[in-house]
Specification:
mainly alpha; 68 residues
Length: 68
């Protein structure tokens, strides 16, 4: 894993974009999320009960934040 990905806090190790699966750091994940207008999984990990969310869209993240 390259040095720029050492801070990765994502717990979804099964994801093919996780920095442990390649040497490109978080770039592939961020690119995917920008393309799909989604929030990275690691952001959701900061919120209690995020595993029960309906999706990864900006709206889904905002709803969890408002409930908090």
């Amino acid at each position: 894993m390259e040095k720029s990905a050492e801070f990765c806090a994502c717990t979804n190790l099964k994801c093919p974009l996780h920095p442990t699966k390649h040497d490109k750091g978080c770039t592939p994940c961020i690119n995917k999320n920008l393309r799909l207008k989604e929030i990275p999984n690691c952001f959701f990990d900061l919120i209690d009960n995020a595993e029960n969310r309906s999706g990864d869209k900006f709206k889904d993240f905002a709803e969890l934040i408002l409930k908090k």
